[in-house]
Design a protein that fits this description.
Strand content: 15-25%
CATH superfamily: Decaprenyl diphosphate synthase-like
Shape: globular
Bound molecules: 3-methylbut-3-enyl trihydrogen diphosphate, magnesium ion
Order of helices and strands: EHHEHEHEHHEEH
Structural class: alpha/beta
CATH class: Alpha Beta
CATH topology: Undecaprenyl pyrophosphate synthetase
CATH architecture: 3-Layer(aba) Sandwich
Number of helices: 7
Strand order of the largest sheet: 3-4-2-1-5-6
Distance between the termini: 23 Å
Number of strands: 6
């Protein structure tokens, strides 16, 4: 059985260049502790920073995280405001440090409806990190269906008459990244909630009951070793 033993052995090789997370369960994490949902989102943001660092050290080339869906606007105004506030704070802090590491931040989703300050911070960090080589895609106001419809319309607007799979892939927000090899969803729900619909056609999925703020480096190692044991056939034999 494949298992990582020591820390230095944990490494993502070419079979797992692109890894994605549906970061779910912040609200329930808070509820279990009698805390407001916002406390779950704050803890979730800490977990996100910790795990991105950990995966970076392990050699991850493409990381994609689902931070806010096109459907999450349906939540109470107060919760949406808190989330936008947390995103703004974290991006603002990361802007100063982005020069010290090799992470290129790309936002997946339409920035137009975001609060102005957040929108500016998103553009600033994208610009400041554009020469870096390892990609961190942050899906913010992202929906897989929305993304495909936009891609087709954009291709059409550019005068492309024949839509092919290659054309669509080229017009998606994820055009800079390969399709995810592995999509991990925390929080126990067995659904994709409109995440990377096009890109995950042949992705491996892993669902865990662990709530996002509790996801540990140890569990990621376990999930990755599970992934390495899978046989990806892509319809072949
Ligand atoms: C994920 O956690 C964060 C976002 C969707 C923004 P949730 O807020 O969905 O947490 P649960 O699913 O209610 O526990
Ligand atoms: C999916 O979680 C979106 C993010 C993690 C950002 P949700 O909590 O919105 O998903 P549903 O509503 O349970 O499908
Ligand atoms: Mg949820």
């Amino acid at each position: 059985m494949f298992k990582f033993k020591k820390d230095e052995e944990f490494h993502l090789d070419e079979r797992l260049s692109s890894i994605a997370f549906i970061m779910d369960g912040n609200g329930r994490w808070a509820k279990k502790r009698g805390l407001p949902r916002s406390a779950g989102h704050r803890k979730g943001a800490e977990t996100f920073v910790k795990l991105v660092k950990f995966l970076g050290k392990a050699g991850a080339k493409y990381i994609t995280v689902y931070a806010f869906s096109t459907e999450n606007w349906k939540r109470p105004r107060e919760e949406v405001d808190t989330l936008m506030q947390i995103f703004t704070e974290y991006i603002d802090r990361a802007i100063d440090r982005i020069g010290d590491n090799d992470i290129r931040v790309i936002f997946l989703g339409d920035k137009t409806p975001l609060p102005e300050r957040l929108r500016e911070k998103c553009l600033e960090i994208e610009k400041k990190s554009e020469k870096n080589t390892r990609i961190l895609n942050i899906a913010l106001n992202y929906g897989g269906r929305d993304e495909i419809v936009r891609a087709v319309n954009a291709a059409h607007a550019d005068g492309i008459e024949r839509i092919t799979e290659e054309v669509i892939s080229r017009y998606l927000y994820t055009r800079e990244s390969p399709d995810p090899d592995l999509v991990i969803r925390t929080g126990g729900e067995m659904r994709t909630s409109n995440f990377l619909m096009w890109q995950s056609a042949y992705s491996e999925y892993y669902f865990t009951d662990t709530l996002w703020p509790d996801l540990s480096e140890r569990e990621i190692k376990k999930i990755v070793s599970d992934f390495y044991r899978r046989n990806r056939r892509y319809g072949g034999l």
